[in-house]
Design goal:
714 residues, Rossmann fold, ABC transporter transmembrane region fold, 20 strands, 15% strand, alpha+beta, 6-stranded mixed beta sheet, elongated, Jelly Rolls, 3 domains, 25 helices
Length: 714
């Protein structure tokens, strides 16, 4: 109620007009049945027919006044309702813009969509019914009760049984109705989440013929929603029905009592008729109110969910004394930074490092090592649990969020564009930028000539998520957007890892040129893109285990050198559609390391190339497929059930035991990005082993030893 009152304060004038209109209409509706007693007892029964005209004129004037005020009331109400709902939507949207990135990564998309669609629609429906089904009948119930008491207190006592019945009877079903409506909302949210996912994975659906499976999945959720909607509808109906039955019985009882009193001359005929008319008005109004109750119950639940969304506090809070970032931010330092996305699972463990001003730095390491988390902290998507990040000699939390982020230019792995003209997509980095400055940024990103050649030029809409452009074109538009800001720090989060080798090489060259003279920090799992950095920080298990230049790290022969060697030994076509492996690379795979070079040279051509789209299943748990896969480019996840067991990247492999022994797959492997793999089929490998039977015994011995160590480690 406090939140409702707060939101209604700007509408004081409209509320005054609505209230006056309600009171006038209430008075007229109550006086019409009351006039029946005067008409029957005084005019008809008393022979005062001359007063008939005066009564009719009085009622006609009252009807015109009530209708005119009702029109003004309706106009004020619909205007207030529209403005209030628009304000509520805007408040929700505004609040979402200040929520931290963690909220949007929590998988609550279906729930938020339901807040904006179903919940707002439920509140709007209740608001549109509020006057004719709630406020006006409610006022008339009170006014009618007062008039009934004034006519005859004895009949009034019997009639007042209506009130406790209409209030108490529905309470028997209100709780179950609220629960049923809440369950229906949850099913609606699940249905919307399924729809949202289906819209984004249509290429996979079409490519793999998944239409039937997706239809079956949606149908299952739709049936669950229908069952829940039926239960909610029945529960809402019971709230209404429990009231109606009692009201009808009470009306019959009061009519019988009134007729007996009129027969005993304890009340006049006019009083009986007028009392019954008012009782009927009271009964109907109570029915309206009770029929409105289910809508009110649903609206209460909807507003509760909306308030829950509005009550979510941002994880990143602005310092009340925040200052602007200085022109020279100098070196960027991480000092003993500790952070975890949850208290149970820390990601970074006391990380300290320094990046000199104007230097190019790269964060590399395996999946889950903490490198991307470092960028999330630098961009203040999250704040450290302890420790600090410093720039310009101060903790970056001392700076206002807006001024700090204005000094950063970010290019992400997924080049997110809005379905707006390309000119506006680039201008978003600096809204006040002139067209000439946008064109210059596009030239720097080497996309200006392409845009100029388009029929619509810079006015062309990018399409949903930039779908009218290729991956490389989208990324160059994203680079232009970042460069337009003229950032002090260029932040690159796997900026080229989703591109084919030819496009990746060209964009890396562009980024290297644009990074000159400014600090650049790149996160990448593909070490070829990090080799040119001034300083490379190698992450493992949330720690910086090595740092230095590419040459220095290779010379040390440590963790970086091992990662580098893992990614070498492959030849990939410029479009990324095919790859081959060298025999010396196969020799670094434990299962094959015992084979002679000549054997490996025979095996290498047996590998075939496969390219998987994001979301594709490479192997499925329980399948009997015996192929051995090496990830040449991309990232894949290993799932056991719904649990992620590992993430594999360039140079990682899986399925070597299945290759040799033909055992069913113990996990599902799914592509997280567009991924190029090479695969060795069991049939081809068995044909090779058939020429050298002695090799199979040696390889089985290696495989059994690996299985024994794996079991011991588990």
């Amino acid at each position: 109620m406090k939140n409702l009152i707060r939101r209604l304060r700007p509408f004081r004038l409209a509320i005054t007009i609505i209230t006056v209109g309600l009171l006038l209409e209430m008075a007229f509706n109550g006086l019409v049945p009351l006039s029946l007693r005067y008409l029957i007892d005084s005019i008809i029964g008393g022979g005062n027919s001359g007063k008939m005209e005066a009564l009719l004129v009085f009622l006609a004037v009252g009807a015109i006044a009530a209708s005119a005020m009702g029109f003004a009331r309706d106009r004020a109400w619909v205007g207030m309702q529209a403005a209030w709902l628009a304000g509520l939507r805007q408040e929700m949207f505004d609040h979402m813009q200040v929520l931290s990135i963690g909220f949007f990564q929590s998988g609550r998309g279906g729930g938020v969509l339901s807040n904006f669609s179903n919940d707002i629609a439920t509140v709007e429906n209740a608001a549109s019914m509020a006057i004719p089904w709630g406020l006006l009948p409610g006022f008339e119930c009170i006014f009618s009760s007062v008039l009934l008491f004034a006519m005859d207190w004895r009949l009034w006592l019997a009639a007042m049984l209506l009130w406790p019945w209409t209030i108490l009877a529905p309470r028997l079903f209100t709780a179950s109705a609220a629960a049923a409506n809440g369950a229906r909302h949850e099913r609606e949210a699940a249905l919307l989440a399924e729809l949202q996912e289906n819209l984004t994975v249509q290429p996979v659906v079409k490519a793999f013929g998944l239409e039937t499976r997706r239809i079956a999945s949606f149908a299952r959720l739709n049936r669950a929603w229908a069952a829940g909607a039926a239960r909610a509808g029945m529960a809402n109906s019971m709230v209404e029905r429990s009231t109606t039955t009692g009201i009808l019985l009470i009306q019959v009882g009061v009519l019988g009592l009134g007729a007996w009193m009129a027969g005993q001359h304890r009340i006049t005929i006019g009083t009986l008729v007028s009392f019954q008319a008012l009782l009927l008005l009271l009964s109907n109004n109570l029915l309206y109110v009770m029929q409105y109750m289910p809508s009110l119950i649903q609206a209460r639940g909807a507003m509760s969910r909306i308030e829950e969304l509005l009550a979510i506090a941002p994880q990143i809070e602005e310092n009340a004394a925040a200052i602007e970032v200085p022109a020279d931010i100098g070196a960027i330092e991480f000092r003993e930074v500790v952070f975890g996305y949850s208290e149970e699972r820390p990601i970074l463990h006391g990380v300290s490092l320094s990046i000199p001003a104007g230097a190019s730095a790269a964060f590399v390491g395996g999946s889950g090592s903490g490198k991307s988390t470092m960028l999330n902290l630098l961009m203040r998507f999250y704040d450290p649990d302890s420790g600090s990040i410093r720039a310009g000699g101060r903790d970056i939390r001392d700076y206002s969020l807006a001024s700090w982020r204005r000094r950063l230019g970010a290019v992400f792995q997924e080049s997110l564009l809005f379905n707006q003209p390309l000119l506006d997509n680039i201008r978003m980095a600096r809204p006040e930028a002139r067209d000439e400055e946008i064109h210059e940024a596009a030239r720097d990103a080497e996309i200006h000539s392409f845009i100029e050649a388009l029929p619509e030029g810079y006015a062309m809409h990018a399409g949903e998520r930039g779908g009218r452009l290729s991956g490389g074109q989208r990324q160059r538009v994203s680079i232009a957007r970042a460069i337009l800001r003229n950032p002090a720090v260029l932040v690159l989060d796997e900026a080229t890892s989703a591109l084919d080798p030819g496009t990746e090489s060209a964009i890396n060259a562009t980024l290297a040129r644009l990074a000159a003279g400014r600090t650049s920090i790149a996160v990448t799992h593909r070490l070829a893109g990090a080799a040119a950095a001034d300083i490379i920080f190698v992450f493992d298990g949330g720690h910086v285990v090595e740092s230095g230049s590419h040459a220095e790290l290779l010379a040390r022969g440590g963790h970086y050198a091992s990662l580098w060697q893992k990614q070498q030994g492959f030849e990939v076509s410029d479009d990324g559609s095919s790859a081959t492996v060298r025999p010396d690379r196969l020799a670094r795979i434990p299962l094959l390391s015992a084979l002679a070079t000549a054997c490996l040279a025979e095996i290498a051509p047996l590998f075939r190339s496969e390219t998987f789209r994001k979301g594709d299943d490479i192997v499925v748990e329980g399948d009997a497929s015996g192929s051995f896969y090496i990830v040449v480019r991309g990232r894949v996840e290993v799932l056991r059930g719904d649990t992620r067991m590992a993430v594999l990247e360039d140079g990682d492999y899986f399925g070597e035991i299945a290759l040799l022994m033909g055992t069913p797959r113990t996990a599902t492997v799914r592509a997280l990005t567009v991924s190029t793999c090479i695969a060795l089929d069991k049939e081809a490998f068995d044909t090779f082993l058939a020429r050298s039977p002695w090799l199979k015994g040696e390889l089985l011995q290696v495989a059994n030893e690996r299985l024994r160590k794996t079991a011991a480690g588990a």
